[in-house]
Write a structure and sequence with these properties.
By secondary structure, the protein is an alpha/beta fold. The chain contains five helices and five strands. The protein has a single domain, classed as 3-Layer(aba) Sandwich (Rossmann fold), CATH 3.40.50.
Length: 125
C-alpha cells in the first residue's frame, strides 16, 4: 500500500484519515518534522501533506525559507519520487513561491482545503 505522511503542526491541519483509508493509503501521522525525517529512512512516503510556515526573520536560522526546508532536503535524498502537497494560510500564500523555487511541490492549497481537492491531487499520478 502506498504511504502518505500527514505532518500535523497546527490545529488547522485537516483530518483526511477517512479519505486516505478509502484510497488505500497507509497514513503515518507526525507531530513534528524531526519525527518525519527519522521515518524517511525506514519507510519513505509516496505522498506528503504538510503545512507551510514562512520563516519570518530568524525563525529558521535565517537560511531556510520555511519550516519545511530541512525536511524537503531529506525527502530529496530518501524519497525523491514522493509527491509533496503543501497547505498554507492565506496570509502566507505569497511566500510559497520561494519554497517552490527550491523544491518540487506536487500541489499547494490554501487553507481551508476541501477533501475533493486532496483526493484529486493524490489521484493525479
Amino acid at each position: 500500500m502506498p504511504v502518505i505522511y500527514s505532518i500535523i503542526e497546527s490545529r488547522f491541519h485537516p483530518d483526511f484519515s477517512a479519505l486516505y483509508k478509502e484510497l488505500n493509503l497507509t497514513d503515518l501521522k507526525f507531530s513534528s518534522l524531526r519525527k518525519a525525517i527519522n521515518e524517511l529512512k525506514t519507510q519513505p512516503p509516496d505522498f506528503v501533506v504538510a503545512e507551510f510556515f514562512y520563516g519570518f526573520g530568524s525563525n529558521y536560522a535565517g537560511v531556510n525559507v520555511s519550516n519545511l526546508d530541512v525536511f524537503l532536503y531529506s525527502v530529496q535524498k530518501y524519497a525523491p519520487e514522493a509527491k509533496v502537497i503543501v497547505l498554507v494560510n492565506k496570509e502566507e500564500r505569497q511566500y510559497v513561491e520561494k519554497l517552490s523555487a527550491l523544491f518540487s511541490l506536487h500541489d499547494v492549497f490554501t487553507l481551508p482545503v476541501s477533501e475533493k481537492s486532496i483526493r484529486e491531487s493524490i489521484s493525479d499520478q
